[in-house]
Amino acid sequence: MLPSSVSPALARRVALAAQGFGRVPSGPVATRQLNTLIDRLGLLQIDSVNVFERSHYLPIYARLGSFDRSLLDRLTFARGGRYTEYWAHEAAFLPTSDWPLWRWRMEHYRDYYAARPDSWASANTATLDWLRAELRASGPLPASAIEADAVIGAESTARRGPWWGWSDVKQGLEVLFRTGEVVSAGRTRFERAYGLPDQVLPSAVLNRTVSRADAHRALVSHAARAHGVGTASDIADYFRLKAADVAPALADLAEAGEITQVSVDGWGRPGWLHSEARLPRRIEADALLSPFDPIVWERARAERLFGFHYRIEIYTPQPKRVFGYYVLPVLQDEALVGRVDLKSDRQAGVLRVQAAWHEAGQTIDVERLAALLRRTAEWQGLESLEVMPRGDLAAALTAAVRSHS
After folding, report:
1. Which residues, 6 or more positions from 246, have their beta carbon under 8 angstroms from its beta carbon?
2. Spatial CA neighbour of 16 closest among 221, 223, 276, 228
3. Do residues 369 and 400 lie in contact, with contact meaning Cβ atoms separated by under 8 Å?
4. What is the rounded CA–CA span in Å between residue 378 and residue 38?
5. Contact 65, 285 (CB under 8 A)
6. How distant is the alpha carbon of residue 68 from its chain centre?
7. Angle, CA of 117, 122 and 126, to the nearest 5°
8. What is the mean pLDDT of each run of 10 residues along the chain (405 residues)?
């Protein structure tokens, strides 16, 4: 029988266990373990920043330890394979079988663009028509291949502007991707190819129809299971759902006995505990968390669970950064005990800890962190580890690293 109240400490352990922490894998990580973990999480968020490592590899590494990244590439980069991409939370890899659960969001984007005569999509219908025809005739293709020869009317659609600027081709493909008129057709060296759904997806996926209510019930069920315990807003944020759609789904799941409402001291609002949640007495973990890891991506939840105030500073001007550019929270057992700003200097073969910080009020095992960073450098194929003299943990971490060098 599920409890009616959960202590804050148990809530942390439940959340970590639901996310796949606390079970040390035995032997090399194989495809089966990758599939099991991704199915548990429901998605891997994609981000292009590569200063340390691309974000979708990091939740796997945090939970399973060192693994062959090419195994994950073969799963997630394949055309028409087990995984596809869509805007679930943010841009993410997700099971291809779940693609029909997002048709309501695709319809939302179509309605949004149609209702906005001032939008790029409304102003560039000729570009969109041309892209549909180009993919029908020659697809699937990456944006770069289409851009190479793309001329619509008298205006070239070649790439222009600074690094964040998209060409008309890329912007058009992304509009069609959001509306479901094109889908990911795999990636090569991280560049996404685009294809029409019937060029890429299996017929069983294309022909599956799911109502908006049923899709939300399935997504809320998965989010509740992936959280273990969470508030309604936590569960809604997992797949970026609206409260109006989440509330009836939660009521249905509660009536079915899949979740039960619980109180957690200090939360100030009800929590929902999943019926399959583990209630561990302890969690053993050593991990570096991506800024886009489900444990911390909802910053309010991270603060409520761990007392950890976290903001990514990639887009903050350097003089205004507090902790660093690409800062990863450090998980030891059931606490977030510090943060490190990492950079993989691939040319020099060095993993650089550009800053290291101890989280106030937490006890950190610096030797464990040093060992984790050495394993991380090895996983990255880097020959050495260097700690820069920035942050209140830098001196102690430098000493711990040198003691085993």
Report:
1. 216, 220, 232, 235, 236
2. 228
3. yes
4. 24
5. no
6. 19
7. 150
8. 89 98 85 96 96 97 97 96 96 98 97 91 92 94 82 44 60 96 96 97 97 98 98 98 98 98 96 97 97 97 97 91 96 98 97 98 97 97 97 98 83
